[in-house]
Amino acid sequence: MSNTGYITEDTIVALATPSGANGAIAVIRVSGQQAIKITNAIFKGKDLSQQASHTIHFGTIRDGDEIIDEVLVSLFVAPNSYTKENSVEISTHNSKYIIERVIHLLIKQGARAARAGEFTLRAFLNGGMDLSQAEAVADLIASNSAASHQIAMQQMRGGFSNQLKSLREDLIHFASLIELELDFSEEDVEFANRDQLKNLINKIKVIVQKLILSFEQGNVLKNGVPVVIAGKPNVGKSTLLNAFLNEERAIVSDIAGTTRDTIEDEINIHGVTFRFIDTAGIRETADIIEAKGVERTRAKMKQARLIIYLFDPLQDKVDEVQSQLQEIQNLQIPFLTIINKADLLSDQQKDEYASLNPLYISAKEQIGVEELKEELINRVQLGNLNTEDVMVTNIRHVEALQKTSDSLERVLFGIDNPVTSDFLAMDIRQALYHLGEITGTVSTDDLLDNIFSKFCIGK
Ligand code: GDP
Question: Where, by residue number, does Mg(2+) bind (predicted)?
Fold first, then answer.
């Protein structure tokens, strides 16, 4: 496998549940060759070394004669565990004191404190999962919406890796055929059919490109869909944000231009996270502080997937609305035209705006807010995620895919402008290398440190 210098001989221990959190139970995780033996030395109950894998045992943890806690011990015998090593999970009562005592006792028996992400690192080093799957574990734990959960779960179960694996195998086949040609270079033979190779490379490029493109959507799903709430001061942007959030977050006031800064908040609508950005209006202003806000509004709008543009019918007559919409149209970002304060409008007054096809809401009275949420989901078209779709959400993966794509491009160029087999082989090997970087077939200690140090201790 990889050229790493990690030592996995020692037995490691860490608290796996959040430290300092309220809750009835804490789980202490032990992994390594000696995990069962070390736990057995402080456990009174059945002899753990004689028990089958995947069994749970009640007993006490003792320091000499002193009982520290009554616990449940779950046993996982190698290789049938997360880390592929002997592993034990000790469920104790959730007391900081008990946890410290138990971990200390385990360390006294020969275990050592685990580093951040070390359990998952071991799962990777012992072949239990590839690198992209290990990274998905972190995403899964961080997931806070149905969509981000679904992507992480898909990646953890290997969807992403499986696609790459078969691509790599096809490429390896060609690389070896071309390398064989090198051995016969005097005789000018071609073992690798160039048309077939070209077809394969094109096929792979399409998939790699699709994965690269999925990043934008995958990233949006993971981090939330950025939506800007815009409109002139006092149209009710903060009130709408509050209605979405169902809490008093942004300051609502009658003084025009109060929302000077941008405020961001997240809400979950039908499983998709939206990141709402409440902004100062785009009204031209002499106020310097507010003018800065306006600049920022335009910058923020450009990052949005969707703009909710609010109008106040008491301030904005139809032609005024039309001229503001013109400015929004220039940004070329999808937008929703919303007439707020509809509670103050008669049906007849509403008719005036009919040609603009707006949504009428009252942020203050919470009228039409649910319909607006539905419209948001429809507009971003992320509501029905296809579970079959493999999505890239990790910048490291996109970079590797981009490099793969570049190498493939060079291979294609090499075929069309005949270069010698050794150059062709080199470019194919490069593409293989970058694909391998994603799954960890090719990895370095630096890369692993970088990835796993971002995990919590106990993962
Ligand atoms: P912003 O400057 O666009 O953020 O506007 P605010 O949310 O601060 O609202 C300005 C004023 O309009 C406040 O007094 C709100 O109570 C009022 N307002 C907001 N939405 C509505 C609404 O739907 N109906 C009515 N009648 N007043 C509203």
Answer: 238, 259
The residue segments making up the domain with residue 78 are 12-129
Residue 346 lies in a domain: yes
Choosing from 229, 252, 307, 309 the residue with most ligand 1 atoms within 8 A of its CB, the one to mutate for a pocket test is 252
Q: Ligand 1 pocket, 253 CB below 6 A?
A: yes
- Asked whether residue 453 is domain-assigned, the answer is no
Which CATH number belongs to the domain containing residue 90 in this structure? 3.30.1360.120
Residues 233 and 324 in one domain: yes
Question: Are β-strands 12-15 and 112-113 bridged in parallel, bridged antiparallel, or unpaired?
Answer: parallel
- Give the tens place of pLDDT for each residue, 435-457: 888 877 777 777 777 778 777 77
Ligand 1 contact via 343 beta carbon (within 6 Å): yes
Does 342 show up as a binding residue in the annotation? Answer: yes
Report DSSP letters for 424-441, one per residue: HHHHHHHHHHHHHHHHTS
Instruction: With a threshold of 0.90, tell me whether the complex ipTM lies above it.
Output: yes
- Residue 215 parent element (H or E): helix 194-223
Q: How many folded domains does the chain comprise?
A: 3
Residues 186 and 206 reside in one and the same domain: yes
Separation between Cα atoms, residue 336 and residue 227, nearest integer Å? 11
Same domain? For 237 and 206 the reply is no
In this predicted structure, the answer to whether residue 258 has a pLDDT above a threshold of 70 is no
Q: What percent of the chain has pLDDT over 90?
A: 32
The helix or strand, by DSSP H or E, that contains position 93, with its residue range, turns out to be: strand 87-93
CA dihedral sign, ordered 51, 57, 61, 64: negative
